[in-house]
């Protein structure tokens, strides 16, 4: 990366308030960056050193060890020894666990990985077939990984009431080109442009009518009319970008989980509907949040967002999709970005979050933030006894439900 490009990369990363404790020398070496909400982040440098900063929580989401293992928050970057010098190319962190893939196709995981409460340090995951992996993404309590032979496997739990699985094949005989994870579901794009989904589908996020007795690990074809080139999952929703440049959406559609931008007043949309936005969309991105926020960029660089708004609106004050993702859940492969950023360049942010209200978190503010901020992931699922099968907190008051944005009473089954 040239000196000019490095300076541009530092300026871009400075937009994430969680990185306030990182100096310019470190940020200038970052080649991959992953933030999980606006509370924590992991960085991979050009010399293959991995650093974590911010929220570690009770489940060691940053993968630290030694004296740092039980520390819940890091004001300054800390070295993640077990991920260094591995050639990490992608990192994903969910609610309870994290995972990474390396250049050699090795898969690592850490955090809470069993229903016995075992919290582990970064450890390699090996398939009996000796498969190599190209992509990884985490749901709330599971990770999904794509092999070089285009198969998707799952480790962990895709349902709060089911036992964790190990290396469960969910793609069947389909060849998967890309995929995305929500809290409790997976959406996969096949080589033919079809969308297959599996997991928990109470709110329509699977794109078809789902029943409680359905096998959550048996992927079925979603009812998406055109061929699809990309999917992006919100917490309990799915967006599909067609090869024609239009967007189709299904799942939760309300003020708590975010509006899908479709022409429907239903609280959940089981059959994917077309979103009322430009038909020349080049990229889509989604957030996990309360509510979810969705965004898209078209072929001339116009950026649209919705979720808090019922319908998509154009963001006149945003010059690039990279800026829009700041302070949200995002992944950036900085080596693939051409600086200076062009408006119409497709984003590598997956997924995007728009959180204008996000504030930097200091260690002194940490405890109060846990209580006040509804998108703090560990507070969503602090006690498994408080969570129902869709990962929603069983609130007892309307005010608590409004704050957390988790519990809703309607379903679409």
From TrEMBL:
<dbReference type="Pfam" id="PF13540">
    <property type="entry name" value="RCC1_2"/>
</dbReference>
<protein>
    <submittedName>
        <fullName>Uncharacterized protein</fullName>
    </submittedName>
</protein>
<dbReference type="InterPro" id="IPR000408">
    <property type="entry name" value="Reg_chr_condens"/>
</dbReference>
<dbReference type="InterPro" id="IPR051553">
    <property type="entry name" value="Ran_GTPase-activating"/>
</dbReference>
<feature type="region of interest" description="Disordered">
    <location>
        <begin position="355"/>
        <end position="413"/>
    </location>
</feature>
<feature type="compositionally biased region" description="Basic and acidic residues">
    <location>
        <begin position="391"/>
        <end position="413"/>
    </location>
</feature>
<dbReference type="InterPro" id="IPR009091">
    <property type="entry name" value="RCC1/BLIP-II"/>
</dbReference>
<feature type="repeat" description="RCC1">
    <location>
        <begin position="193"/>
        <end position="244"/>
    </location>
</feature>
<feature type="compositionally biased region" description="Basic and acidic residues">
    <location>
        <begin position="363"/>
        <end position="373"/>
    </location>
</feature>
């Amino acid at each position: 990366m040239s000196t000019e490009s490095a300076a541009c990369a530092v300026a871009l990363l400075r937009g994430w308030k969680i990185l306030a404790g990182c100096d310019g020398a470190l940020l200038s070496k970052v080649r991959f960056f992953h933030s999980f909400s606006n509370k924590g982040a992991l960085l991979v440098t050009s010399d293959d050193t991995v650093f974590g900063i911010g929220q570690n929580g009770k489940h060691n989401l940053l993968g630290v060890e030694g004296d740092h293992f039980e520390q819940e928050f890091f004001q300054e970057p800390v070295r993640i020894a077990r991920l260094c010098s591995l050639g990490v190319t992608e990192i994903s962190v969910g609610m309870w666990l994290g995972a990474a893939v390396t250049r050699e196709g090795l898969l690592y995981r850490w955090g809470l990985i069993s229903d016995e409460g075992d919290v582990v340090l970064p450890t390699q995951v090996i398939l009996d077939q000796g498969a190599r992996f190209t992509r990884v993404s985490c749901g709330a309590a599971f990770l999904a990984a794509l092999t070089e032979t285009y198969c998707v496997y799952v480790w962990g739990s895709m349902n709060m009431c089911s036992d964790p699985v190990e290396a469960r094949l969910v793609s069947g005989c389909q060849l998967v080109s890309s995929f995305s994870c929500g809290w409790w579901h997976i959406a996969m794009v096949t080589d033919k442009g079809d969308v297959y989904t599996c997991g928990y589908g109470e709110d329509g996020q699977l794109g078809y009518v789902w029943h409680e007795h359905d096998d959550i690990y048996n992927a079925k074809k979603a009812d998406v009319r055109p061929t699809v080139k990309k999917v992006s999952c919100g917490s309990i929703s799915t967006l599909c970008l067609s090869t024609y440049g239009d967007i189709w959406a299904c799942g939760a559609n309300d003020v708590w989980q975010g509006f899908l931008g479709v022409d429907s007043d239903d609280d959940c949309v089981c059959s994917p509907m077309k979103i009322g936005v430009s038909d020349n969309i080049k990229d889509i991105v989604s957030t996990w949040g309360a509510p979810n926020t969705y965004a898209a960029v078209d072929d001339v660089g116009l950026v649209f967002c919705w979720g808090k708004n019922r319908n998509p609106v154009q963001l006149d004050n945003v010059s690039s999709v990279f800026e829009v993702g700041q302070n949200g859940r995002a992944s950036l492969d900085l080596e693939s970005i051409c600086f200076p950023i062009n408006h119409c360049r497709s984003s590598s942010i997956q997924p995007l979050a728009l959180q204008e209200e996000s504030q930097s978190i200091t260690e002194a503010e940490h405890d109060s933030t846990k209580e006040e901020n509804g998108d703090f992931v560990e507070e969503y699922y602090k006690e498994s006894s408080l969570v129902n099968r869709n990962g929603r907190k069983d609130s007892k008051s309307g005010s608590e439900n409004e704050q957390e944005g988790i519990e809703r009473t309607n379903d679409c089954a």
